[in-house]
From TrEMBL:
This is peptidylprolyl isomerase. One of its GO terms (biological process) is protein folding. It comes from Sphingobacterium phlebotomi. The keyword Protein biosynthesis does not apply. SUPFAM superfamilies: Cyclophilin-like.
Length: 254
């Protein structure tokens, strides 16, 4: 009898360990961005792993908390991530701060600057390496086909946009002239209207909002990310007792 219960116990333990080993991992990393103008939910692309992993690291460290959107241009983008903005005085020039390393460019064909995407800011280095912390959220605008023709001729110096670019920029909108020059590494799933609210802020001669717009960020946990992906599939979140017990044995993040 003791042997029987021992075998049953080992079987249960084995099944439990297998459930841990085969634990589902979210498809993407997600970041909640909170501002005084509203919240945004950001999905980071797997196609740009260096930018994704660096951004995740900084968010987990609380790097972005209390920083400003220090550069705002209506119908273009809103930029933040300069650590010097945390305690910046009024009229203080911003935009030069950040960690002492750069991220190698991960510019992907077909990953374009549609409205709601996040891109990495950079200086004029020839390798197009990105700032380690500064980013921009694209507002842009919707173009007419004729407007894109003009853009190709004058700003892009004859370079033709793809069919995908034309479809996106005449429907969703964005900033097509940035394509191929800056790394896009994610997009907003919710809260695009927050960009619109920030983008209409009154600014000074350096495009810094006259009224500070600050941010904080939170990386979704493994369970929060899994439940978000279930929600997007039309499934209910998993919040039952067994799930909560199993989650104790998993890493909080992934």
């Amino acid at each position: 009898m003791k042997t029987y219960f021992k075998e049953i116990g080992l079987l249960i333990l084995g099944m439990f360990l297998m459930s841990i080993a085969w634990a589902k991992t979210p498809q993407y990393h997600y970041v909640l961005i909170k501002t005084g103008k509203g919240e945004c939910l950001l999905k980071l692309y797997n196609e740009t792993p260096k930018h994704r992993d660096n951004f995740v690291k900084l968010v987990k460290e609380g790097y972005y908390d209390s920083l400003m959107f220090h550069r705002v241009i209506h119908n273009f983008m809103v930029q933040g991530g300069d650590p010097d903005s945390r305690y910046a005085a009024q009229k203080q020039p911003l935009g030069e701060g950040g960690p002492d390393y750069k991220i190698p460019a991960e510019i992907q064909e077909g990953v374009i600057h549609k409205k709601g995407t996040i891109g990495a800011a950079r200086d004029d280095n020839p390798a197009k390496q990105s700032s380690a912390s500064q980013f921009y959220l694209v507002q842009g605008r919707v173009f007419t086909p004729e407007g894109l023709d003009s853009l190709e001729q004058f700003r892009l110096k004859g370079k033709k946009l793809t069919a995908q670019q034309r479809t996106v920029y005449t429907t969703i909108g964005g900033t097509p002239h940035l394509d191929g020059n800056y790394t896009v590494f994610g997009e907003l799933l919710k809260g695009i209207e927050t960009i619109d609210k920030i983008a209409v802020a009154k600014t000074d001669e350096r495009d810094r909002p006259l009224e500070d717009v600050r941010m904080s960020m939170k990386l979704l946990t493994r369970r929060e990310a899994l439940n978000l992906e279930r929600e997007m599939e039309g499934l209910p979140p998993k919040t039952d007792f067994f799930t909560k017990v199993l989650d104790i044995f998993y890493s909080r993040y992934y």
